[in-house]
């Protein structure tokens, strides 16, 4: 039970941070590599994903 409560506490803090910044989780299709915003997030620092993309 403690692990579940702590996991939700972590999630709640993450969601609260998004709300403070006017952000929300980015939707993406199941089975995909994630939202296109994730690519922009990593490439802005000159990085790239490793593996099949």
From TrEMBL:
GO MF annotations for this entry? glucose-6-phosphate dehydrogenase activity; NADP binding
Q: Which SUPFAM superfamilies match?
A: Glyceraldehyde-3-phosphate dehydrogenase-like, C-terminal domain
Which residue numbers delimit the Glucose-6-phosphate dehydrogenase C-terminal domain?
A: 1-49
Looking up InterPro entries in the UniProt record yields: G6P_DH_C (IPR022675)
Protein's recorded name: Glucose-6-phosphate dehydrogenase, C-terminal domain
Q: Name one GO biological process term.
A: glucose metabolic process
Q: Which domain of life is it from?
A: Bacteria
């Amino acid at each position: 039970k403690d692990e579940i409560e702590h996991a939700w506490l972590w999630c709640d803090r993450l969601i609260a941070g998004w709300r403070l910044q006017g952000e929300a989780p980015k939707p993406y299709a199941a089975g995909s590599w994630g939202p296109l915003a994730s690519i922009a997030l990593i490439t802005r620092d000159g990085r790239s994903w490793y593996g099949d993309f």
